[in-house]
Amino acid sequence: MAITKHVDGYMPGYFEFLGLTYNAFSEYLSQTNCSGNWFLQWLQDLHHHAHYRSLDLIVVVVLAIVWTLLRIVATKHIFEPLAEYLQVQEKNRGKFPESAWKFLFYSITWSYNIYVVVCCGDYRFFQNALSVWNDWAPGMVIPVDIYILYMIQCSFYLHSVYGTCFMDAWRKDSIVMLFHHFLTLALIWFSYAARYHNIGALVLLLHDVTDVELEFTKLNTYLRIRNSKKYAIHEHLANVGFLLFAISWFVFRLYWFPLKVLYCSGHGALQRVVEPVPFWFFFNVLLWILQFMNIYWFQFIIVFLYKVATGQMNELEDTREYEAEQRAQAQQKSLSAELKLKDTANGFLKMDGIVANGHSHLLEAGKEATGNGFATGDGVGMNGSTHHQPTRPKTE
């Protein structure tokens, strides 16, 4: 099956993208011998096509330790004292340093990423996704600016594995987050070793922006109520941050990521590269798993919007938090109890009205009957006494 070619800068629609992806996988699998010891063949390809130095591994591990130590020091001497100074609520003081650290780190790395990929003018990956394959060759030299980006990001996700297990607040999606960190490590390292670094830089660019907005929103959520006082500025900033986060998640991760990254890594690789692309199937499967995880996390946003629209949630909260779920359940129970109380009260009022009216009619009827009876009885008695009263004999 022939692979359709497209001009530079072209970005397909969803349906065309899905068709091109299906054709690319069909083309690749039809030309691949899946029989025999495929795992042994994969290891041989890894040996021949994976290009990395022992120094690179050392740099990643050392930097991961550095990020962990920096976070510990910053948490103890900067973020925790700052949370106490700002009088952050007790329930949020443990989460404030986590969000502050991530917001600071993601802001710096994403700013550097957007400078390298978009602003410096040396690359056009974002404007023209297919250009990631220009001059590609196995074992090619990685530019210094992208090499720095890779070492920082790979080491940070290695640190994040430790951070999720031992430093972050445990959430409903923490297991999925751990899987995400390992998946990201695999994507970064294999894209580095196979020299898919241009695609990797584009993936990081499209994903880290939402992390910046998420931590910004959470920080303002923690700061909106302090010392029993509500700060409207942080309430507005949290709402704006969440709105940008929701929009960016859809645009960057559910629109641009599939139509730029998955398009160029799947269809574009088979179109642009003359020789067989190493790890094509493996690398694309990992990217598609990442895309399904983006869809999974997007449902948290949908759930939040649904709860706001239906009145189940009145404040901006992270729906992944166990505390938020407990508060939402308590709020729902309180609302249900209040509705039941109102229904019971209305029922009693109706019953009281019936009983009151019944007593009134009975009393009126009783009074009327009793009155008539007494009147008649008196009348009869009086009449009887008048008519039947014996005549006293005259005394002479």
Could you characterize the architecture of this molecule?
By secondary structure, the chain is mainly alpha-helical. Helix content is 75%, strand content 1%. It has 11 helices and 2 strands; from the N terminus they run H-H-H-H-H-H-H-H-E-E-H-H-H. It has helices spanning 14-30, 38-49, 54-85, 90-93, 96-119, 144-166, 174-193, 197-223, 232-272, 280-309, 322-388, and strands at 225-226, 229-230. Strands 1-2 form a two-stranded antiparallel ribbon. A hairpin with a 2-residue loop joins strand 1 (225-226) and strand 2 (229-230). The termini are far apart. Residues 348-396 have low confidence and may be disordered.
Number of strands: 2
N to C succession of SSEs? HHHHHHHHEEHHH
Average pLDDT rating: 81
Q: What is the global morphology?
A: globular
Structural class: mainly alpha
As laid out across the biggest beta sheet, the strand order is 1-2
Strand proportion, as a percent range, falls in under 5%
Span of the ends, CA to CA: 151 Å
Residues in helices, as a percent range: over 70%
Low-confidence segments, ≥5 residues, pLDDT <50?
348-396
Largest sheet: 2 strands, antiparallel
How many helices? The count is 11
Give the C-alpha Rg: 38 Å
